[in-house]
Design goal:
Radius of gyration: 18 Å
Strand content: 5-15%
Largest sheet: 3 strands, antiparallel
Number of strands: 3
Strand order of the largest sheet: 1-3-2
Helix content: 55-70%
Distance between the termini: 40 Å
Number of helices: 7
Structural class: mainly alpha
């Protein structure tokens, strides 16, 4: 299981705290969250996105005793996109589920890739029927 593998290999040496970061706490938290997810291709290994509930568990496990509240995690996730960290918050309208996803996995990119994949499958099936 990819999540178990990631959980075993994480650890943040000096977690950002409200005391150490002051007014920049949520920005620094967002940066640390993005670093954790992008390091070693972790978020890619999880399919390019992670729910905030799973991220909450993963991030707090990596932080050891310096736990982050759900509210602070959401604020940091909301900032991630505006800070251009390579990940952004996405809310699925029908369910309200919130995920942090790779910017490369935005809806336009996914739809474009699926169209290309369908085209390649249809042309390879078309060519193989004439062989």
């Amino acid at each position: 299981n990819e999540m178990e593998s990631i959980l075993q290999s994480i650890g943040i040496v000096s977690p950002v705290t409200k005391f150490s970061a002051g007014r920049l706490y949520h920005q620094q938290l967002a940066r640390q969250m993005a670093d954790l997810l992008l390091s070693k291709g972790r978020l890619s290994r999880l399919g390019g996105m992670i729910t905030l509930a799973d991220l909450y568990c993963l991030f707090n496990r990596a932080r050891g005793t310096e736990l982050v509240s759900p509210e602070d995690l959401v604020k940091a996730a909301e900032l991630a996109g505006t800070l251009h960290l390579g990940v952004s918050l996405k809310v699925f309208p029908s369910s309200g589920v919130k995920v942090l996803q790779l910017d490369a996995f935005n809806d336009d990119t996914i739809v474009s890739q699926r169209i290309v994949d369908m085209f390649h499958r249809s042309t390879s099936n078309h060519h193989s029927s004439y062989s």
